[in-house]
Amino acid sequence: MKKLLITGAAGALGRAMRPRLAGLAETLRFSDIGAMEPAGPNEECIRCDLGDAAAVHDLVAGCDGIIHLGGVSVEDKFSKILHANLLGLYNLYEAARAHGQPRILFASSNHTVGFYRQDEHIDATAPMRPDGLYGVSKCFGEHLARMYFEKFGQETALVRIGSCLEKPSNHRMLSSWMSYNDFKLLIECVFRAPMLGCPVVWGVSNNDSRWWDNSHAAYLGWKPQDNAEIYRAELDAALGKPDPKAALHVYQGGNFVNDPIFEED
Length: 265
Ligand code: NAI
Ligand code: 15L
Known about the structure:
about 260 residues, Rossmann fold, seven-stranded parallel sheet, globular, NAD-dependent epimerase/dehydratase family protein, NAD, NAD(P)-bd_dom_sf, oxidoreductase
């Protein structure tokens, strides 16, 4: 790839992935509404509000791949979600349509299916069961991407990320965790695949206790290497045994199922 755009670059995942993406494209174009570390060699940093159509149009120009991490990443007021995740995504897809349809990796979320119970094992055909407005915005994003695929052939990997952080921080994440290295391997597979289409991919490591079946996406060749199980004893020691009745340990979306609808100002 000549130029890869990464939105949400100032966020937790954007910052963690930035050094890991070097080499994937001749130039990495990082973007966020917030401040980012200054650009290094082969990097560009562009401040941009995803809700600003003209700015997003310019941002996407010249890019032949997009990793879309930007947006509201937890439950929040609907107005904020509407701006960043709905309008922002529409702006991104319209910009992509105007600029040669670069392949997109969309950071969707396990909160599209958060109301499944942890004793249910599901695959990509399971109906969506979002656990809040944030989850609904990711369902919207997946449908928007699907529509642009059916109508215009725009390819997107709909990556339903579980919990992508350095290491699992509670027992739920023994199932939902994806390591940074496995995310990097997935990104490489998505952008190197001869044919992508518009698949849902569960963004989860090779955890013994994972809930999600990725066999439909085997053609991508992604083989996650890490397994959260190695952290179980450490979590038991730090947190004690999990309460089997707590939402955190009942639902795939964990505590998100208990979030209220936040009132507007
Ligand atoms: P984060 O909240 O740390 O980063 C999101 C970034 O998006 C922030 O830097 C923020 O400034 C930026 N942003 C928000 N509104 C914007 C706007 N209007 N215009 C431009 N930029 C805007 O979230 P994190 O953890 O880095 O996640 C990245 C993506 O992955 C998010 O889309 C999130 O929904 C998704 N995801 C992450 C998971 C995780 O475990 N980290 C799990 C599931 C999904
Ligand atoms: C998400 O979608 C959030 O963006 C992230 O902050 C985590 O909470 C993650 O899901 C999770 O479910 O652990």
